[in-house]
Give the backbone structure.
Amino acid sequence: MAKNETPFQFFYSRLLSEEVRKKSEHIIIAVAIISFILHLLVVILVNLNILHVNEYSSMFTNPIAAIYTPFSFILIYEVYLLVFYLPKSTTIYIGKQYEIITLILIRGIFKDLANLEFTRDWFKVSYDLKFTSDLLATLILFFLIFIFYRLSGRKDEEPHETSHLTDEILKFIRRKNIIAMCLIPIFLCLALFGLGRWIHGSFFSITRMVDSIKDINLIFFNDFFTILILTDVLLLLLSFSHTDKFHKVIRNSGFIISTILIKLSFGSEGLLNTILIVAAVSFGVIILLIHNQYRKIDFPFQKTL
């Protein structure tokens, strides 16, 4: 720590600065490429009967499934971006949640590609039906996210101006920075623990452990969105320190409901899973749309503290 550097500045510069974000991006790209090559090598070794994996680990028998691995690391970077933008913009922070669930859906499509069965009974085969619904859902989510960012009126590259902000808002932003810095080690430990469970279950377990965690999304992202819900509630409570505007309270509350719907999707299967995800993002978009229209109305009895 530098002599004139406060603990807040020290941790911020090493966790949430623009320089760290750019370095993380380069590292993730390199790791994603290496992991893709390694996964392909494992698939080759398994198919040659040189390497033996748990009988439930179908991820290592089809080379198409290898695409799943680099997408997992891209998702890790998206998680970091979500935390990175948390103090800077509420709408971008929520938008990153929607991007993450969409990428999870796309990652699942790559996984399903390895299990497709081209038969006349396309809509009677569960894998084929799930693949079709996920494709349609991805298009819908991509469009909804586009609308969400258009409504937010902000871009990722937009700098966070502070010259016109009140002391209460600046204090709120500082608290959000502290929350973001706390989330990074929490998510890192959660990811490492989940990766360890998955590796153990895939290569070393002689029980049916893998069968109980066969949906890899449940290993990390189920707990991830639980933590996000708690974080969103905390942010909602902290926001009362600088505003009492009804439309902002409803907007932030609506975003919490949207995150809860995403969390519920991990406990469902098949078409219900896809419907909950699309409903969650749709709800967030509608909430933001109404919020934007509501703030155009001048209510003299509402004020910002």
User: Anything to note?
Assistant: Confidence is low (pLDDT under 50) at residues 208-214. The first helix runs from residue 7 to 15. The chain has one domain: 15-150+165-294.
